Amino acid sequence: MNQFICTTCGTQYPASGAPPNLCTICEEERQYVSPNGQVWTTLEDLIQSQQYENNIQLEEENLYSITTSPSFGIGQTAYLVKGKDYNLLWDCITFIDENTIEKIAQLGGINAIALSHPHYYSAQIEWAEAFGVPIYIHEDDQEWIMNPSDHIILWSGETLVLNEGMTIHRLGGHFKGGAVLHWEAGNEGKGVLLTGDIIQVVANRKWVSFMYSYPNLIPLPAKKVREMVEKVKPLSFNRIYNAFHKIVKEDANHSVQLSADRYIKAIQGEWFQT
């Protein structure tokens, strides 16, 4: 019995004697099946290949990024947010080995895992079991949990306070339960928003954008984007970190509001003619 992992999205499935017929995450319109077809692997195979390692990098005081090299699956970044006697892993990656566990233990370990949306569930159960911690997922995205576990706690409503100064906010958009993490102490007390790609930092780091599907370029309705940015407007944050190591370094809340205005004007045909 193996817990097979989709190589395109990095999602791990429950133990079975043979690979699943398809990856539910990749078959859905927000993701895609590789042009080369559905391919499966296992965490054991990834470790034994000795091709992969996790890089843990200090981004700012009490914030570490965790990425896999070479890139695997979607290639997202997870973040370790250190609070007072409470460390949170925001979003998850597929690869985990003893070296990763040891390095994170040296940083104080992990007290909980929280997810922005289903594309980053990856091998979250492996991480939860390694550190003996709960996983927080919004109940609106329950159907996308491919590997059920007692570690998973489904939360409801619009906000969840995990610890002093660490609050999850459900924005929806990319996924119905799509969420961001507000870390009040980040950026020297000016506040940080960790967004996955619920709010996506774009190539021009002074701007962000919003999508239903990023790889397939399906936009969100203007009404939904306005609802999302109104939810974060009252929050105090000067900086954004997204899931692909892109950062809005300062005045980030203002950037979100300006970006929403630009997006809405563009999608309603009011910004330009072409």
The outline comes out as globular
State the fourth-level CATH superfamily: Ribonuclease Z/Hydroxyacylglutathione hydrolase-like
How many separate structural domains? 1
**Uncertain stretches:** none
Give helix % range. Answer: 10-25%
Chain oligomer state: single chain
Tally the helices: 6
The side-by-side strand order for the widest beta sheet comes to 4-5-6-7-8-9-10
Number of strands: 20
Short structural description:
The protein has 274 residues and is an alpha+beta fold. The chain has helices spanning 24-27, 43-49, 98-106, 124-131, 222-232, 252-267, and strands spanning 2-6, 12-16, 40-42, 53-60, 63-69, 78-83, 86-90, 112-114, 135-138, 152-155, 159-163, 166-170, 179-183, 192-194, 200-201, 208-209, 211-213, 218-219, 239-241, 247-248.
What does it look like?
With 274 residues, the protein is of the alpha+beta class. The protein has a single domain (2-47, 54-267), classed as 4-Layer Sandwich (Metallo-beta-lactamase, Chain A). Helix content is 20%, strand content 30%. The protein contains 6 helices and 20 strands. It has helices at residues 24-27, 43-49, 98-106, 124-131, 222-232, 252-267, and strands at 2-6, 12-16, 40-42, 53-60, 63-69, 78-83, 86-90, 112-114, 135-138, 152-155, 159-163, 166-170, 179-183, 192-194, 200-201, 208-209, 211-213, 218-219, 239-241, 247-248. Strand 7, helix 3 (98-106) and strand 8 form a beta-alpha-beta unit. The radius of gyration is 18 Å and the shape is globular.
